[in-house]
Each structure stands twice: as C-alpha cells, then as structure tokens.
Amino acid sequence: MIRRSAHEPGTRKTSRPHDRLNHSNGATDMKQMKVRLNRDNAIGDTDPRLFGAFVEHLGRCVYGGLFEPGHPTATPQGFRGDVLALVRELAPTIMRYPGGNFVSGYNWEDGVGPVEKRPVRMDLAWLSRDPNTFGTNEFVDWCRLANIEPMLAVNLGTRGPDDARRMVEYCNHPSGTELSDLRRSHGWDDPHEVRFWCLGNEMDGPWQMGSKTATEYGRIATEAAKVMRLTDPRIVLAAAGSSGRNMPTFGQWEEEVLDHTFDHVEFISLHTYLNDYAGDTPAFLASPDLMDGFIEEVVAIVDAVATRKGSSKRVMLSFDEWNVWYRTRRGATRTLPGWPVAPPILEEVYTMKDALAFGGACISLLNHADRVRTACLAQLVNAIAPIMTETGGRAWRQTIFHPFADFSNLGRGTVLAAEVDSPTYDATYFDPRGATALHFPMPEVPYLKVAAVDAGATLTLFLLNRSLDEDASVEIDTGGFGSLSVVRATTLRDDDLEAANTKDAPDRIAPVPLDGVEVSGGVRVTLPPASWNVVQLRATRRQ
Fold first, then answer.
1. Is pLDDT of 129 > 60?
2. Residues facing 20 on adjacent strands
3. Residues 6+ apart with CB under 8 A from 215
4. Topology of domain 2-44+416-539, per CATH?
5. One of 56, 109, 321, 348 is an active-site residue; which one?
6. Which residue, among 197, 199, 189, 204, has the nearest Cα to 223 in the 3D structure?
7. Checking DSSP bridges between strand 523-527 and strand 471-479, what pairing results, if any?
8. d(CA 504, CA 402)
9. What is the DSSP string of 430-458?
10. What's residue 11's pLDDT?
11. CA distance 239 to 259
12. Strands 236-239 and 196-199
C-alpha cells in the first residue's frame, strides 16, 4: 500500500490524545483523503486460514469458556451452545490448540482416553491445575461442530520428536497401529485428519519451558518435522519464529532456524500484541503499522535464506498470535495463588479504542495476504478474547468481536493494492517504563488506513479513520469495476473511547449504519472520527 501525505512539508499535523471525541459532521472540520484502486493491481488472494483464532488452556478460555458441562446451553459433550453460536457468527476458519505457553509442558496423552482416568496436572505456564477433561479429541469434535479446521501444536519444550510423531499417528493414521487403534478404542474410529501442525511455541522466549537457542531449536524442529511427515506426508508444518519484533535475537533467530528447517517446513510463525504502553491514543492507533513492518522484515529474512540456498521455495508466514493486550499484562492478574482450576486471569476488557487498533491489525493482515497465509487471533474466549462468558450464565461480544467478524466474513477474496493520499501525523510507540527495545518513532502515520477485497461479485472496503476529532471525506477511484452499488455500509464508533461492552450492556459498542455513501464514477464516503468502517459494494463483472 502506497501512503502519501496530503500536507506540504512543514505543515504536517500532529494528533493529540483524547478520551472523548467532539464529533462534527460539518464540512469545515473534515480531512480530505483519496484512495486509488485498480482491479488488475492485486496483492494476492486471502487464504482461508488467514481468519483463524486460538484456544489455549489458559484461565477460563476452555473451562467455563467453550467447555462447561451443566451450563443451560451445553451440548451432550459439554460444549457451551451460546459460545458456539457466537463463534459461528465470528466465523474463524482455523483454530490453534493447545498453546501457547501451555504446550511447552503438555503431555498430549493426558488429555485422551476415559475422562475418569485422566490425570490432574500442574500447569506450570499459568500456575494452575488442569483436570484434562478437555483434550485433543474433544477439541477436534468442537472444531467440527463449529465448522473450523483444527491446528495442533506439539511440545518441543519439555518433550521432543518422538512424542510429536506419536501424536500425529494417534490423530491421523486410520487404523492398524498401536496409536491409531488406541484412538479408536477411545471412541474416535475415523482419523482426525489434522493438516496444520506447529513445531512448538515461542522457543526463543526465556519464559518458555524448555526454551532454546536458535541452533538447539532448529535441530529439534528439523528432526520432529522429519518423523512427523514420515508418519503423515500430507501435513503442513510451521516453525516457531521470533515471539516478538523486540526480541534481542529477532532476525538472527529466523535465519538460523530456517538454515536448519528450510526444507522441512512451509511456514514460520510470528507474534504481536498491540499495547497502549504510554496512554498515547494516536500512537496506539498507529501501532498496527508496525505489524506491516514486522511482516515485511520477516519476509525479507526468509527470502534471503532461500536465495542463499539457491531455492525458489517461498516460506509463508503464520501470524498465529496477534491481538490487543496490555491492561492485564501490567497487573497481578496473570496468575492466582493456590493452583486453581480455570482461574479468571488475563480477562482483558476491550474498549472502543482497542477495537480501532484491532481493526487496523486486520487491515495489516489483509494487505499482506500474499505472504501471511495463516493467522490466529489470540485468544477466543475470556482470556484476551472477543467473546466473554459468565460461568453458568450469559455470553457476550467484546468490542473487538465486531472488526474480526467483518474481517472474517467479508475479507475473503483478492486483496487489491490501495494507493492512499491522506494527511498524516507523527507518533512514537514506546514503553515509558524504560524498555529501550520498545521505542519506535513513526513519522507520517496516515490518518486513513485501508484494505480493499475483490470477491468477484462484491468489493469490500475496510476503512479506519484514526483522526480523533475530525471526519474524513474519502474519495475512492475504483478502476476496472464498472458500475457499483451499495450492499451494506456500517461504522463502529463511540464518543467515549474508553467505553466497553459488559454483560449488563452487551451492545453498547456495536456496528450501526454508515450514512451518506455515494456511488457514481467512484465511491465517496464520509467517515466519523475515530471509527472502524466497512463498505460492501456490488460489483459488475470485469469489462
């Protein structure tokens, strides 16, 4: 995406943080912006796996979240029906499981077989107890009910290649071997046919159980990949990349890991959590642009490895953890004493401001659809999640639910390159507590962030107005589309950027119609300040 400032040098505006907005529809208080699209200028097609999410044994994500036997809406298997309904509305396409930090200490055998015989284990990742009443088989069954592809991670922290290949055999081999017949004896005659497998999680992180150097991880991941693929040649494998752009080994880690794994994997992972470190709203809303840079840097690194190896193979990116997450990273709610089962930890309450930054991340993923082929929102229920539940009670949508539902339901198709002319502002994304690795000056951040998806019969525009106090008048040149007509247009905004949805006010933040979309020789739309907007247009066939 090409981004240009509409200001001449020396006249750039700088935005200031506000918690409340002064919304005016008057033309005297409006930024002028232009977007140029051409139907023949495509970034790439979105892979169905781009719209994934993540379930970990963390807090109430599983127990009391998607799995709660005895709940009034529970299925015979104990899955919460109200959560299933919201998940279908959210429409994720692939689901990563069982971790996350949890997987680096997990014995997959603990979560299969008769429930009454499964051991209760200490979960060292989150200092809690796991009764193992929900495991691999239950997860796959839940995915089938939700019409979601399962993605499994293997433990390369405290375990190794042999345990990984045994898990693949248990899940995917039809019958006639020890582990496939064990699965059948547990009540699952048909193989699970899990295609996407992750080779551990965040193995560069010192917080990770069994963390490793790049060489150590590269070697164990290679050997695991070899025996896993011998067990089932149809699987797709992702190596663990850097767990954050600010890791001191970023870049070197990817290069060394791929030196070992290049011939054995299709993907390398990357993780990002957007964080309002300084309470600086404009910088926070600019932070999704750092995802763009992170993606482009990883692409450059992995392609440099391919060039050095003289290979035309292109390793793709799996952005298998991403979200907004900051309040519960700072307090004392990451763990609770006494090794409780399913403690209420990391239950981030998302605001309108968070939904805007989150929507910007959705746009970043779409605009790199050529190389980011898989992505997983972390996580799905309760723990840093778009869906919240009351144990024994109701479930509701957090503010970030709505941009993801738009992204997933309407983002499938061909992403077009968008040339954006927009006023800009300067921002600095940093941690004021002194973490020098988190200091990113961001000059000339466009107030308008855009993605455009051509689905053949429709053109969908995702439009984020990052100005806190001015409407945006946007003129969109839609070359190659012929005539267009509006199918739907919605906006998500609130005068109070700290407003949130709660169990008592579950729809405080929800999309409403966006008025005034004009279609005639292009598209013209006025966006409210600090707003996430989606415009879906009916498109004629290519001329």
1. yes
2. 496
3. 256, 260
4. Immunoglobulin-like (2.60.40)
5. 321
6. 199
7. antiparallel
8. 18
9. E-TTS-TT-EEEEEEEESEEEEEEE-SSE
10. 28
11. 12
12. parallel
The angle subtended at Cα 118 by Cα 109 and Cα 62, nearest 5°, is 85
390 belongs to the catalytic site: no
**Cα–Cα dist 112/338, whole Å:** 26
User: In the block, which residue shows the tokens 């995406």?
Assistant: 1
Would you say residue 21 has pLDDT above 60?
no
Cα 311 from Cα 436, distance rounded (Å): 37
Task: Label residue 509 by pLDDT band (50, 70, 90).
Answer: very high
Mean pLDDT of 284-299: 97
The pair of structure tokens assigned to 475 is 């003129």
- At which residue do the structure tokens 């044994």 appear? 57
For residue 531, give the H/E element and its range: strand 531-539
Query: Which segments of 131-235 are extended strands (E)?
Result: 149-154, 196-199
- Tell me if 152 sits within 8 A of 194, measured CB to CB: yes
Q: What is the pLDDT of residue 436?
A: 52
Largest CA distance in the chain: 75
Type and span of the H or E element at 139: helix 136-146
Question: Residue 188, Cβ neighbours under 10 Å: how many?
Answer: 18
**Position 482 pLDDT exceeds 90:** no
Angle at 332 between CA 329 and CA 336, to 5 degrees: 115
Which token pair is 61?
A: 């994500």
Contact 345, 328 (CB under 8 A): yes
Residue showing tokens 């507590």: 433
**Of 109, 202, 223, 348, which residue is the catalytic one?**
202
Angle between helices 214-231 and 252-261 (to 10 degrees): 40
Q: Bridge partners of 372? A: 317
Taking the CA atoms of residue 501, residue 502, residue 505 and residue 508 in that order, the dihedral angle to the nearest 10 degrees is -10
**From the candidate CATH numbers 3.40.640.10, 3.40.50.1370, 3.40.50.150, 3.20.20.80, the one assigned to the domain spanning 53-413:** 3.20.20.80
Domain boundaries, the chain: 2-44+416-539, 53-413
Q: What is the pLDDT of residue 506?
A: 97
Whether the link from the prior residue into 398 is cis, omega within 30° of 0, is no
Residues 6 or more apart from 392 whose CB is under 8 A from it? 68, 70, 71
Catalytic residue status for 116: no
Are 2-44+416-539 and 53-413 equal in CATH topology?
Answer: no
